[in-house]
Design brief:
- The protein is α/β, with parallel strands linked by helices.
- It is 25% helix and 21% strand.
- The chain is built from nine helices and 13 strands.
- Strand 5, helix 4 and strand 6 form a beta-alpha-beta unit.
Amino acid sequence: MSRKHTIGIVGARGHTGAELIRLIAGHPELELAFVSSRELDGQRVADHSDAYAGELRYASLDPAAVAAAGADVVVLALPNGKAAPYVEAIDAARPETLVVDLSADYRFDPGWYYGLPEITRGRYAGQKRISNPGCYATAMQLAIWPLLEYLAGPPQCFGVSGYSGAGTTPSDKNNVELLRDNLMPYALADHMHEREVSAQLQVPVEFMPHVAPHFRGITLTANLWLNEPLKADWIRARYEQRYAGEPLVDVVEQAPWVSRIAGRHAVEIGGFTVAPGGKRVVVVATVDNLLKGAATQSMQNINIALGLPELAGIPVEENQTNG
């Protein structure tokens, strides 16, 4: 029996790190080599994750120690602006290591593969540096992409996220008391994910994010102006055709509910509504920001890069089929 691929996580204390540990624990071909966290240094991983049963303990590893650990794969689950020292250390000591960065630090770097498999899978050519898309950016691109060639102007996207998207560092955006009975708008122009999607789809995109009192899950409503009149049935069929055979994208008739996407690995897209005249359509997408918006997508990218089945270790039995 061939050995399992070893994988380490840097920034494992956060919500996404916890989901990654769960996915890795259930993966038939991956073995957790290290989990780096300053706050949890020395504590047993199993005491913080009911999915992990081994004796591995969290460790506080600097960039040189991460590179020296020799893992086949390193996932960087760090806040924006923190990845570079780890990438530089791995580049110098073990450039053959597969690095997946979950932050925005390399999403605009042409030397890195941008891994949104349903759209960019065909561009993967063995790159060892993979930038994982943002959670909002995943929902936006999947909602817009099937109609990209029909757009008459910038898509306008209204997004609402659960507060887990703000991470674990205390702020107004994850303060449960401030969020109670509230909807908090922020970064209403030039948001990082607005720039990310505009760059990837090569069209200007307008994005207005908000945080809501629920813990996880994103609702993304996209308003799309079209260059010719289209009917709702044709549009839905277009989405079904584009995402046929994609187990992690469910095209549905009604506008999806965020409460139904929490804990699931797929994106739901639906609610196709055409305004009078046929040149304006509204599309709704929901995604779990910690799963397909982060950990699940990184697992897809790791599997592709290692030559494994793309959905290895990703439970999909609960997902609906398209339609």
